[in-house]
Amino acid sequence: MSQVNSRSAFVYELVGTVFIIILGSILHFTFEWSGGNPVVGAFSAVNESVWEHLKLVFWPALLFMLIEHRPLKKTANNFVLGKTVGVYLAIITIPIIFYSYTAVTGKSIFLIDISTFVVAVIIGQISSYKLLTHKKLSENLDRISLVLLVMLGIAFVLFTFYPPQLPVFRDPNTGKYGIPQ
Predict the structure, then answer these.
(1) Which residues constitute the domain of residue 33?
(2) Is 176 within a domain?
(3) Of 41, 113, 124, 140, which residue has the fewest beta carbons closer than 10 angstroms?
(4) CB neighbour list of residue 50: distance below 8 Å, 6 or more residues apart
(5) Number of alpha helices (DSSP H) and beta strands (DSSP E) in the chain
């Protein structure tokens, strides 16, 4: 990949970082703002569970992936793989940091939670950039990545309405799971 293409990928991933952070922050409130609309809830946080906060990374990252696909598809390598790995790393980072620090402090701290979100997005975007500018890998990895991305999107929608009774899905404020009834 040429220097110009690396620069283009870098700019897109940098803009994507800001886009994901801003849109993800807005999605934290859109379910409440919609008056509890279940369609909005499928794409926004419907409670304060860790799982619901992962949607704040996933949906904006997916939207930005669609935005940057056309301009980068011919100049970047491993596009779907890079974007999928970035999303998964960001989503894995959030619970790792959250559960690690709350195990030590015994409580959730708002500023650390916000910082965790930002750090997770940055990690995801850096990893995406690294794969976009890496040598071309197997097309099969892009195909598998697309399946994994679709499966994660389905899980976010499905578990909004039918969450497993596991701690990651439990709202710590209400003790309830999923979309409020």
Answers:
(1) 3-169
(2) no
(3) 140
(4) 94, 95, 98, 99, 168, 169
(5) 6, 0
Q: Under a CB-based contact definition with an 8 Å cutoff, are residues 58 and 153 in contact?
A: yes
Q: Is 144 part of a structural domain of the chain?
A: yes
Chain centre distance of CA 168: 16
- Please indicate, yes or no, if residue 114 is contained in any of the structural domains: yes
> What pLDDT digit, counting tens, does each position of 114-151 carry?
999 999 999 999 999 999 999 988 999 999 999 999 99
Residue 136 located in a structural domain = yes
* Residue 81, helix vs strand vs coil: helix
Amino acid at 84: T
Q: Angle of helix 3-33 relative to helix 110-132, nearest 10 degrees?
A: 150
Predicted local confidence at residue 53, as pLDDT:
96
| Residue 117, C-beta contacts closer than 8 angstroms, at least 6 positions apart | 21, 24, 25, 53, 56, 57, 94
Q: What angle do CA 56, 74, 55 make, to 5 degrees?
A: 10
Q: Please check whether residue 30 is in contact with residue 44, taking contact to mean a CB–CB distance below 8 angstroms.
A: yes
Q: Are the CB atoms for 13 and 125 separated by under 8 Å?
A: yes
